[in-house]
Structures are given as structure tokens and as C-alpha cells.
Amino acid sequence: METAVIVHGGAGAWKMENGRLPEAEAACQQAALAGQGVLVAGGSALQAVEVAVCILEDCPYLDAGRGSFLNARGEVEMDAIIMDGRTLELGAVAAVQRVLHPISLARHIMTDIEHSFLVGSGAEAFADLIGFPRCQITDLLVDEELARYLSLQEDPEYLTRTIFVEPGAMGTVGAAARDQQGNLAAATSTGGTRKKLPGRVGDSPLVGSGAYADNWTAAVSATGYGEALMKLVISKRVCDFVASGLPAMAACETAIRLLAERVNGHGGLVAVDTHGQIGYAFNTDAMPYAYALGRQPIVGGH
Ligand code: ASP
Fold first, then answer.
1. Given Cys at both, which of 1, 11, 192, 197 links 268, Cβ 3.0 to 4.6 Å?
2. Measured from the CB, is residue 265 less than 6 Å from ligand 1?
3. From residue 179, how far is each of 34, 79, 114, 182 by CA, in Å?
4. 284 in ligand 1 pocket by Cβ < 6 Å?
5. Total number of domains constituting the chain
6. Are 1 and 276 in contact (CB under 8 A)?
7. Residue 155, C-beta contacts closer than 8 angstroms, at least 6 positions apart
């Protein structure tokens, strides 16, 4: 079967911002290439999305892993989810600190224990229990985000949602893939929104909102203003649109129209459907993405 992988680097007001968009696009292309490498070598969709998201988590220009935004207390609290479309098993973490790769911790939760979702200190204790690599906040923090944190301290009126429509690039990351066996998987990872309250969890680690994968329909990863996306359980909704007969592209476009019309939300989606067709849509200024179908060259855009 033809393989497919698509990744995103977050929906937001990228073009109004400084020069981060080319860096984000380059990271997406690198991530799609790595995912494609796993798939053409016969690896699983699950492995492909994890490898792709790890690359994006390493990119300091994206809001996931290294480069994550700081919360209102100056901490980095990250959320992630990975889902296997073959079994519908999933692993998720929320408000986790001091790990470089939350997506890999989420995968361990999925595969190693009976639970699906661990948060905060419990997720960190699990990481320590299995010897999962921990890091310091300084390994996650980039100078630009520290400077933003300090300047936002002076702005008591700041709302986390403004970043999706006013200058200020986002950078949540995600991937969806289909392997040679026709299995689907999806993954999403984020540092959340700038200056969020400690303990705030957005859509990203919530099953059906930040991601969903079901071999019968599609694999989907979402980005955007989490408080709006979660109201629509938007990734599952894309799967439902595919179930009703839409290809991945039309399903993503329909869900983004719904996001705007129903909850006045801003965001983006990437998807691979059960036939290996890719889809993407967003209603923000930009959303860096890249995809690879079979062995064909990577296609990127924003
Ligand atoms: N959806 C993420 C959140 O609300 C942010 C993003 O996608 O940029 O935490």
C-alpha cells in the first residue's frame, strides 16, 4: 500500500511575525522526510509520527519540546498525545515538565502501562520510574521566549488567544501517517499557549481534540486556540466527515469552516485518510506543513 505522512508546525499569525516561518517550514520538511524514511523502510505509522514529532520538538522555533512557550509563572508545561489507529490505543501527557520529548513519554504510557493519560507530577514520576530521560528547564528554554515572557509580564490585559490572530507565530507540532500495512497513526505535541495559567491544558493531549487516529477513517492532528478546538472535538470530527464519504482534504476544510462558524475559533488540521489521501486546512495567517506520498519528493507549504 502507498504510504503517506503529513506534519505541521502550528497554525498562527506567522507571516506577520519575524523571520521564523522559513525555519519552521524547513523543520517540517525534515520531519516529513524522516517520517517517509520510516514508512518506505517498512516501519509503522506509529513509529513514523513519533520520529517526525521528535524532530519538531527539537526545533527551537516551534512551541513543543525545546522552544516551548512559558506559562504565567515562567515554567514550561507541555502536553502531547499519540494514537494508534489499528487498536485505538493512545498515550497522553499534560502539564509535564523537564522532558525533551513529551511525545515519546506519551508513547511509553500507551505501551508500558494500563493507563492512557498521565498529568503533571504523576507523569514525571512515571518518567523517572522507567528511566525516561529528564532535562533542565534551560534545555527547553530559548532566549526569544524568555524575552517574550518578561515583556508579557508588563501586559496584564494579555489574552492567550490573541496570538492566533495578531502578530506572534505559534508552533504546536503534529503528524499523521499511513504505513504499508494501511495502519494509521497521529501525534501532537505542544508547550501550549504563552502566559497560560499554570495547570492549563488545551486541546492537544485530549483524545479526539488534539489528535485522533482510526484505521477505519483517518489520522488527524490539530493546532490552534485550544479552548475553541476542544469544544468541537475537532480531530474526531474530521474522522466522522471521512466516515460520511469526504476525502481527507474536504474533511479538514469542512471542520475548519465549522470551527469559525460555530465557535469563532482559529486553527489548523492535517490528516491522512484510510485511502492514503492527505488533507490540510487552516484559517490563520499561516500553518507550516510538509507531506510525503510514497517515495515522492517532500511537498511543503504554509
Ligand atoms: N492547541 C494548542 C493549545 O491550545 C496551541 C497551538 O496549537 O498552537 O495548547
1. 11
2. no
3. 13, 25, 25, 5
4. no
5. 1
6. yes
7. none
Which helix (H) or strand (E) segment holds residue 290: the answer is strand 289-293
Ligand 1 contact, 269 CB (< 6 A) = no
Cell numbers found for residue 65 = 519540546
* Mutate-to-test residue for ligand 1 from 56, 190, 201, 263, highest number of ligand atoms within 8 A of CB: 190
Q: What are φ and ψ of residue 165, in 5° steps?
A: -125, -15
Compute the distance from residue 287 Cα to the ligand 1 centre, in Å.
Answer: 12
Ligand 1, from 223, 232, 289: best to mutate by most atoms within 8 Å of Cβ?
A: 223
| Eight-class DSSP state of 292 | E
pLDDT score of 139 more than 70 = yes
Instruction: Give the 3-state secondary structure of residue 119.
Output: strand
Which one, of 83, 94, 35, 31, lies nearest residue 62 by Cα?
Answer: 31
- Greatest Cα pair distance, the chain, in angstroms, is 54
Ligand 1 atom closest to Cα of residue 225: 4
Using CA atoms, how far apart are residues 141 and 24, in angstroms rounded to an integer?
17
Q: Are 152 and 195 in contact (CB under 8 A)?
A: yes
107 contacts 82 by C-beta, under 8 angstroms: yes
CATH number of the CATH domain containing 252: 3.60.20.30
With cut-offs at 50, 70 and 90, classify the pLDDT of residue 5.
Answer: very high
- Give yes or no: 172 in active site: yes
Angle, CA of 94, 74 and 189, to the nearest 5°: 30
Atom in ligand 1 nearest the alpha carbon of residue 229: 1
Q: Would you mind telling me the total number of residues written for the chain in this entry?
A: 302
Amino acid at 11: A
b/e per residue, 197-217, with b = 16+ CB within 10 A? eeebbbbbbbbbbbbbbbbeb
- Domain with 213 in it: 4-301
Tens-digit pLDDT profile for residues 79-113: 999 999 999 999 999 999 999 999 999 999 999 99
